[in-house]
Amino acid sequence: MGTEMVKLLQERHFPLASLKLLASERSAGKLLDFAGESLPVEVLRPEALKGQDIVLGATEADVARQYAGVIVEAGGVFVDNSSAFRQDPAVPLVVPEVNLADLTAHCGIVASPNCSTILLVVAVWPLHRRRPLKRLVVSTYQAASGAGAAGMAELERQTRQVLAGEVPTAEVFPHPIAFNLFPHNSAIGADRYCEEERKMVHETRRIFHSAALPIAVTCVRVPVLRAHSEAVNLEFEEPFPVAEALALLREAPGLQVVEDWERNHFPMPVEASGQDAVLVGRVREDLSCPGALDLWLSGDQIRKGAALNAVQIAEQLAGGRR
Amino acid sequence: MGTEMVKLLQERHFPLASLKLLASERSAGKLLDFAGESLPVEVLRPEALKGQDIVLGATEADVARQYAGVIVEAGGVFVDNSSAFRQDPAVPLVVPEVNLADLTAHCGIVASPNCSTILLVVAVWPLHRRRPLKRLVVSTYQAASGAGAAGMAELERQTRQVLAGEVPTAEVFPHPIAFNLFPHNSAIGADRYCEEERKMVHETRRIFHSAALPIAVTCVRVPVLRAHSEAVNLEFEEPFPVAEALALLREAPGLQVVEDWERNHFPMPVEASGQDAVLVGRVREDLSCPGALDLWLSGDQIRKGAALNAVQIAEQLAGGRR
Fold first, then answer.
1. Tens of pLDDT along A119-155?
2. Which of A68, A195, A247, A281 is surrounded by the fewest CB atoms within 10 Å?
3. By its UniProt entry, which PANTHER family does this protein fall under (chains A, B) (predicted)?
4. Is domain A2-113+306-317 given the CATH code 3.40.50.720 in the classification?
5. Mutation site for A-interface testing, chosen from B166, B184, B222 by largest number of A Cβ within 10 Å
6. What is the three-class DSSP state of A284?
7. CA distance B138 to B201
8. Fold held by B117-301
9. Do the bridges between strand A133-141 and strand A215-218 make them parallel or antiparallel, or are there none, so unpaired?
10. Do the beta carbons of residue A224 and residue B162 sit within 8 Å?
């Protein structure tokens, strides 16, 4: 995710005076290309964070918690991709296309949501804003990239093993992922929702300022390399004509409508990979429930689902939309 | 599917006086092992169907329509796996675990449902029978085997291509299936449901004798070789305690409960493949809706999803449960 953020800063011509790359001891010393220069990766230490205007975090929650104080005390703003502060009422949880106004209330820390949440809210917000949602039922189809580069490597390695007639060996995931799928492997709570599902429920509610919005969600890992997909059933308080919903999605920022009913062509992970926009389509009336719609989306979990959203937040902090 | 039925007749010691194997010209002349004998495949012709007590069909709908009359006129019973007669009010649509009583009303033709429908009704019936469903929301994760042996071969071939850095070539599916997924590639109707989705709605209603049961369904093809999975959200008229639901599922025929919350181990396609039972688990309260439950299932699309269900129907016709 760090590498992807560096790429985005360059692609989007982020207004930088200087760029410092920090990582654990393991990555320190590596060189990354940036705008024709070769930048060294330095070791993440409290001193290295001083004097920075904006710090983009791509670490686990415990590392984010450990360093947030240092960044804020030194006068910087911390844009955190981890789950450390997402439910902290003092920290805005921001998806620029949805709740940019929340950003102004930050006290030095801004949280970027979970990847599956970001893809969902970008697609659903234009509809919810027009006519309030009554309930959401979501099933996810989440790529191996959700477990980082190691997850993607495991999918490739296991796939080669299966094709060679060998038994796939699992290191990153608890179960084989090659030619297989399973409910999301995050910690399961007393309510029997896994952590990924709880994140989608609670983060969506915070971002929408709808504290009690009913959301049922089932998160599933699938043998796809890089983009997540979601089947979304949306119940509204009042009927929502399909044509009106489509028109709203077509003009909404961060979305690309992909719908060709003749050719049966809708959003797919291979087409969403590497794209900034969340692909959305297959919008249809749910015949089982008056006032309900179904839609289908695919979005790059590493870009809009993580790195791009954080960079967009940083762009706003650096002075206005780019 | 034909090969799988022959295997099942042998495994389950079907009470056979004789067995005749019929296929198109392309397969005629091949030999299949059966109970120590080598049986030749003959060409499917009207004359070949005369004098048979039971004919198990594993053909497309048009072939089933073409030959059904000959079978019935000759006094045989036709157990059809195609979609030809599934919505014919004169033809019972049967899943033995659910609506065996419907079988007695047959007039020479019995239909076996669509694979995704069979897996769904076997898992949901024990609950619906106890407390009536108000609405179902289903998302499927369907294996390449749904498009037959050619679909499985395409997934394998494309996967090798992608791993070799080549562009995958699509022949069976309209889009790449390797490391990708897409909404089900069956014909889309005016209501924007695809044929697979319409089958699940209408067949489930017929089997349950619940002509207006509201069912929302999204069917998706995933890069899995052989078993289908489904995320099922069930709304009931009254609250359904999880413990009671689980107890019903544990004692229901055709199901195996797979639930290990500690180890995050639930039904998976690789474990469902080759199994007769539909694997079901991850039964939890849906926190978004009072009286709703979520469950997750995986089932072998070729066995219980097709060949096994047809053979079970034939066993009943041949004189009682085996």
1. 999 999 999 999 999 999 999 999 999 998 999 999 9
2. A247
3. ASPARTATE-SEMIALDEHYDE DEHYDROGENASE, DEHYDROGENASE, PUTATIVE-RELATED
4. yes
5. B222
6. strand
7. 10
8. Dihydrodipicolinate Reductase; domain 2 (3.30.360)
9. parallel
10. no
